[in-house]
Design brief:
Elements lengths: L17 E7 L4 H4 L3 H16 L4 E5 L2 H10 L4 E5 L7 H4 L2 E4 L8 E7 L2 H4 L5 H13 L3 E8 L6 E2 L4 E5 H4 L10 H12 L3 E5 L17 E5 L2 E5 L8 H13 L3 E5 L3 E5 L2 E5 L5 E2 L3 E6 L3 H15 L4 E6 L1 H6 L8 E4 L4
Parallel strand pairs: 1-2, 2-3, 5-6, 8-9, 11-12, 16-17
Antiparallel strand pairs: 1-18, 4-5, 7-8, 10-11, 13-14, 15-16
Length: 339
């Protein structure tokens, strides 16, 4: 197969109609510590919220997890037994491209390389293989891309724009033999985008993923991005201001987003980004921090950004944030084909 772009395929924006959502059950004990049970409860909450709108496929790694997940999940969630090493399926799973954004008739799963965010954790062979398995599971052809790439490091608007951060994609722990130009060309070849917007940095508290863009930015419609802003006394202030300058210079319309929560888990202060939400055709699933005023501000701002066509649903997200992500990090959409 030639590259997807050469065949006219492109990655659709997240808000287009989904056939289903892909997820994986939390399982890496050294990541979650004493919070593994709470992480499973939060994942079940996300899956059940999505399942009210569309089918969900939940991958579990063994029979015990299968029974546990099945008991916690709604009937609109398919539970599939398959070895996995971690639950961040946005990063290890496939990224789908289609032949037409609005009424696609063909869908291909792009299987990027995965190296556990630059070898942050040992043992990720199963996660390296899950992209191909899931692509085939939903009936899609698969193409392997010659690039280490996590889905949480990019966002697209469906008209050619892709947004990412230099901190992540240019980190030598991902693709040390490639320069910026080579990485950008692979994004264009395999995701069908035409313009890459390189923000500089993600959140300073984001240690595991090296500045994933899905903690700070999300397209709300073609050409418009919701972008994290930080108060003057916040350590992220200068970086977020610089990202805004870059986005505007690239021709994007920016909607500023101010709420940024912090919480304490197991004696550790963590950042709980509201921006790590998951978008569907009719919903936005937003992680909340159990801080009523700030949660309400965030839900209202996201609701205004996406408009009345989407129901904004808050779900508990502090434990996922402790693990390094949120609803966006644990999901991957499968674009629906035309009826």
């Amino acid at each position: 197969m030639t590259t997807p772009a050469a065949e006219g395929l492109t990655m659709p924006p997240e808000w287009t109609r989904h056939e289903r959502t892909l997820m994986a059950w939390p399982c890496r004990r050294e990541l979650w510590g004493g919070q593994l049970g709470a992480a499973k409860a939060e994942s079940a909450g996300v899956a059940n919220a999505i399942a009210a709108f569309e089918p969900v496929t939940m991958v579990v790694r063994d029979a015990a997890d299968h029974a546990e997940a099945r008991a916690a999940l709604d009937g609109n969630v398919e539970v599939v037994l398959r070895p996995v090493d971690d639950s961040w399926l946005r990063d290890s799973g496939p990224i789908f491209v289609v032949d037409h954004i609005e009424e696609p008739s063909r869908r291909v799963g792009v299987h990027f390389g995965f190296n556990s965010w630059g070898d942050k954790f040992e043992g990720y062979e199963n996660d390296q293989a899950i992209g191909r398995f899931l692509s085939e599971h939903v009936g899609s052809d698969v193409v392997r891309a010659p690039l280490i790439l996590e889905g949480g490091s990019i966002g697209v608007d469906g008209t050619g724009f892709l947004i990412t951060t230099e901190e992540c994609l240019l980190n030598p722990n991902r693709n040390p033999s490639m320069d910026r130009g080579e990485i950008e060309q692979h994004l264009k070849d395999y995701l069908g985008v035409t313009k890459v917007v390189w923000l500089e940095k993600g959140l300073v508290e984001d240690k595991d993923t090296d500045g994933h863009v899905d903690l700070i930015a999300a397209f709300t419609k073609p050409g418009t991005v919701l972008l994290q802003r930080a108060a003057a006394d916040n350590p992220n202030h200068d970086n977020m201001a610089r990202n805004r300058e870059i986005a505007v210079a690239a021709g994007l319309e920016v909607i500023d987003f101010d709420p940024l929560a912090y919480a304490e888990v197991e004696g550790e202060e963590i950042v709980a980004s509201y921006m790590n939400f998951y978008i569907g055709e009719k919903f936005v699933i937003v992680p909340v921090a159990g801080q009523p005023d700030l949660d309400a501000e965030a839900l209202d701002a996201i609701g205004r950004a996406y408009g009345p066509s989407k129901e904004v649903i808050g779900v508990p997200g502090v434990i996922h944030a402790f693990g390094g992500g949120g609803p966006h990090c644990i999901t991957q959409q499968v674009p629906a084909l035309a009826d």
